């Protein structure tokens, strides 16, 4: 069993987030989560390329296999959970893994609206 204790500030290509972990629960909080995800897409992680919703499913499966739960929080609340303890039919449909659970519509709406606005303003820039 893996346990994690951490309190970090992360900066990836100018996008910032904080990571707090206690035991098997890890929480990443970002004021601009889509920018942070876009910066991570170019990073080399052990789950393969970070492109598309299937990448989220691969990450969730890897976390679940390690007994870890990952929570992603934005400025309006929890955006989702990945890994151990996160079971969702919608997660399986969208990402290929039932270890992905989406947050509430209230917390997701502003992030999705911002992503949609950005994709319309710059059709070449996609949020995968």
Report on the structure:
A hairpin with a 2-residue loop joins strand 4 and strand 5. The chain starts with a strand and ends in a 7-residue tail after the last helix. The protein is of the alpha+beta class and about 130 residues long.
Total strands? 6
Q: Could you tell me how far the N terminus lies from the C terminus, measured between alpha carbons in angstroms?
A: 31 Å
Query: Which shape, going by the Cα principal axes?
Result: globular
Count of helix runs: 4
Topology:
Blueprint: E1 4-12, E2 15-23, E3 25-29, H1 33-41, H2 53-65, E4 69-74, E5 77-83, H3 89-95, E6 100-102, H4 105-121
Parallel strand pairs: 3-4
Antiparallel strand pairs: 1-2, 2-3, 4-5, 5-6
Task: Write a compact overview of the structure shown.
With about 130 residues, the protein is of the alpha+beta class. It contains four helices and six strands, in the order βββααββαβα.
What are the defining features of this structure?
128 residues, alpha+beta, six-stranded mixed β-sheet, 6 strands, 36% helix, 30% strand
């Amino acid at each position: 069993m893996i346990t994690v204790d951490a309190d970090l500030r992360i900066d990836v290509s100018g996008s910032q987030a904080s990571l707090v972990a206690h035991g098997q629960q890890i929480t990443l909080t970002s004021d601009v989560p889509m920018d942070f995800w876009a910066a991570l897409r170019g990073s080399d992680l052990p789950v393969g390329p970070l492109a598309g919703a299937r990448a989220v499913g691969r990450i969730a499966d890897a976390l679940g296999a390690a007994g870890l739960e990952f929570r992603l929080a934005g400025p309006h609340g929890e955006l989702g959970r990945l890994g151990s303890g996160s079971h969702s039919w919608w997660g399986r449909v969208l990402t290929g893994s039932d270890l992905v659970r989406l947050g509430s519509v209230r917390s997701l709406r502003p992030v999705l609206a911002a992503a949609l606005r950005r994709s319309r303003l710059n059709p070449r820039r996609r949020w995968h």
